[in-house]
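Run log // design_07
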C-alpha cells in the first residue's frame, strides 16, 4: 500500500474496547473505573487526558492555578459538562482527596504539595510515566537540549516508511496515554521527553537517545547537575537488551558512555564510531556495526539544511536500525521537509528566502540555524 510521509499503517483486528489489548492496560482501565483521579494542570494535552479518564469511568477533578476567566469560560463549561470537577485559583492544591494524582510535567516532582500527598500514601505520577508503566510495545525515547523534536519525528517517519505502525507523543503530538488502547505489541511508540518529564521517571525506553546536553532550563532546575541527571534518567533504568544512543561530539553526552547499561550506539559528525552512525570526510553518512561501515547517503541528499540536521539524521538512524531499512532511511532523507518553527522556509521573494526559526530560544540553536 503506498504511503505518504506522516501516515502510519492502519490498525489490525477488531475495534472492541479490549480486543487484543495488553493485560496491564486492561487491568488499569478496570481499576480506574469509579476511582477519584486528580489531574494537575489544564492544558491542551491534559484536556485529552481528562477526557480519556472521564470516558473510562473515573471521577476526575482538574486542578489549575489559573482562574476561570483566565482559562476561558468555554473550556471550563466543556469540562464541567463532561462531569469534571474544577479546582481553580491560588488554593487549587488544597484538600486533594484522590486515589491517584497526575501532575503536569512543568510542576516539580519535589513540590511541597506533591510531597505531602505522597506522605499520605496517594500515588503521584504523570501521563508519560503511566504510559511507560503500561505500554505493551517497543519504545523509543528522545531527549537532549537541542534537536529533540526533529529527531523524534525523523524516527517516526523512518519506521512508518518501513511499514511499521507508530504512535508518536510525549512532548509533541497527542498524549501517548490517550493512545494506549490502540497500541499492540508489534507497534512502536516514539516519545520526545523533556527534562521535566524525565526527572521522576522509573522506567526507561527500549531505545534511549540523548542528542546533546548544554545549559538549559536552569531557571527551573536547581542546578546543572540536576538537569544532567534528568537527561541521564532516560537511560538509567535500561537493561542489557536496551540500546542507548549518544551524540559523542558533545562532551557531556560522551561522558555518559561508561554509565550505559545496555548496548551503546554513538553518532558523530567529527569522527568515525565503532557502533552507530557518522559523517565521513567525503560528506557521506555511514552506518557502522562492530567497526564495519556501510554507505547510506550523501549529506547533500538530505532535504533539511544545516549540519545540525545531519546530526539529527545520524541520531535517528542509530535509533531505528535495523527496524527501518536503508530504503526507508533514504526516502525520508530526500522527502522530509521538516518540523514547524525549525528553519522552516516561509517564502522566497526577489531572491531572498525567509525562514521561521522561532524555536531557536538558546544560543546553541540560534548559532546552528545561522550556520545553515
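design_07 sequence
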Amino acid at each position: 500500500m503506498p504511503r505518504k510521509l506522516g501516515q502510519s499503517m492502519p490498525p489490525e483486528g477488531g475495534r472492541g474496547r479490549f480486543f487484543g489489548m495488553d493485560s496491564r492496560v486492561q487491568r488499569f482501565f478496570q481499576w480506574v473505573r469509579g476511582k477519584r483521579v486528580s489531574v494537575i494542570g489544564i492544558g491542551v494535552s491534559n484536556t485529552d487526558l481528562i477526557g480519556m479518564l472521564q470516558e473510562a469511568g473515573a471521577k476526575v477533578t482538574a486542578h489549575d492555578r489559573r482562574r476561570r476567566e483566565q482559562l476561558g469560560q468555554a473550556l471550563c463549561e466543556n469540562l464541567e459538562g463532561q462531569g469534571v470537577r474544577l479546582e481553580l485559583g491560588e488554593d487549587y492544591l488544597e484538600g486533594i482527596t484522590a486515589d491517584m494524582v497526575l501532575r503536569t510535567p512543568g510542576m516539580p516532582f519535589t513540590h511541597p504539595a506533591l510531597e505531602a500527598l505522597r506522605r499520605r500514601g496517594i500515588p503521584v505520577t504523570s501521563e508519560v510515566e503511566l504510559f511507560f508503566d503500561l505500554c505493551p510495545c517497543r519504545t523509543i525515547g528522545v531527549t537532549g537540549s537541542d534537536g529533540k523534536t526533529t529527531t523524534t519525528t525523523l524516527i517516526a517517519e523512518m519506521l512508518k516508511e518501513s511499514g511499521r505502525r507508530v504512535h508518536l507523543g510525549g512532548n509533541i503530538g497527542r498524549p501517548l496515554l490517550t493512545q494506549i488502547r490502540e497500541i499492540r505489541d508489534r507497534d512502536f511508540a516514539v516519545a520526545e521527553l523533556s527534562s521535566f518529564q524525565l526527572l521522576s521517571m522509573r522506567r526507561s525506553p527500549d531505545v534511549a537517545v540523548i542528542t546533546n546536553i548544554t545549559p538549559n532550563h536552569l531557571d527551573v532546575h536547581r542546578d546543572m547537575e540536576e538537569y544532567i541527571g534528568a537527561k541521564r534518567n532516560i537511560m538509567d533504568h535500561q537493561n542489557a537488551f536496551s540500546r542507548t544512543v549518544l551524540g559523542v561530539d558533545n562532551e557531556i553526552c560522551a561522558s555518559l558512555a561508561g554509565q550505559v547499561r545496555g548496548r551503546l550506539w554513538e553518532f558523530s559528525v567529527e569522527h568515525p564510531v565503532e557502533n552507530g552512525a557518522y559523517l565521513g570526510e567525503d560528506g557521506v553518512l555511514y552506518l557502522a556495526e562492530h567497526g564495519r561501515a556501510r554507505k547510506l547517503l550523501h549529506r547533500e541528499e538530505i532535504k533539511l539544511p544545516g549540519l545540525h540536521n545531519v546530526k539529527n539524521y545520524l541520531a535517528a538512524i542509530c535509533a531505528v536500525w535495523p527496524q527501518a531499512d536503508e530504503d526507508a532511511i533514504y526516502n525520508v532523507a530526500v522527502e522530509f521537509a521538516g518540523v514547524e518553527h525549525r528553519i522552516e522556509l516561509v517564502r522566497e521573494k526577489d531572491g531572498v528566502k525567509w525562514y521561521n526559526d522561532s524555536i531557536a530560544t538558546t544560543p546553541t540553536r540560534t548559532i546552528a540555524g545561522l550556520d545553515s
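The radius of gyration is 21 Å.
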